[in-house]
Design a protein that fits this description.
Blueprint (H helix, E strand, L loop, with lengths): L1 H19 L4 H22 L23 H32 L16
Length: 117
């Protein structure tokens, strides 16, 4: 299971970096999304996959073993929320840039300083 996740993480990082180096703004946004998913899976894998019970103490004061570590789950949840915010900002930025330039090519954005407001 770990080896399969390592392969998936590697493929997501590779595809994300490849898409980040493209000239199309849409491909850059998709690459950003793939990198976010790869980072979330990496945190999930580093936190060790355990099929355990929730980390609660029973009525007798005993801790059930093995229990799932809640810290990686909290980190992944936070990363998902932050990633969603970054993706929403990138999509709105793309929409505004496309309205100004009428192109999604990043090279066309080099000459935007001389445009009339």
């Amino acid at each position: 299971m770990d080896f399969l996740l390592v392969l998936i993480i590697g493929l997501l990082y590779t595809a994300g970096l490849y898409l980040l180096m493209r000239k199309s703004f849409v491909k850059v946004i998709i690459g950003l999304i793939l990198l976010g998913h790869a980072a979330n899976l990496l945190i999930f894998l580093v936190g060790r996959i355990t099929r355990g019970k929730p980390a609660f103490v029973d009525l007798n004061g005993l801790i059930t073993e093995p229990f799932a570590d809640p810290l990686p789950q909290a980190l992944i949840l936070t990363a998902i929320v932050i990633g969603f915010g970054v993706q929403a900002f990138a999509i709105v930025l793309f929409k505004r840039a496309y309205q100004s330039i009428n192109s999604d090519d990043l090279d066309d954005m080099n000459s935007t300083d001389n445009m009339d407001q």
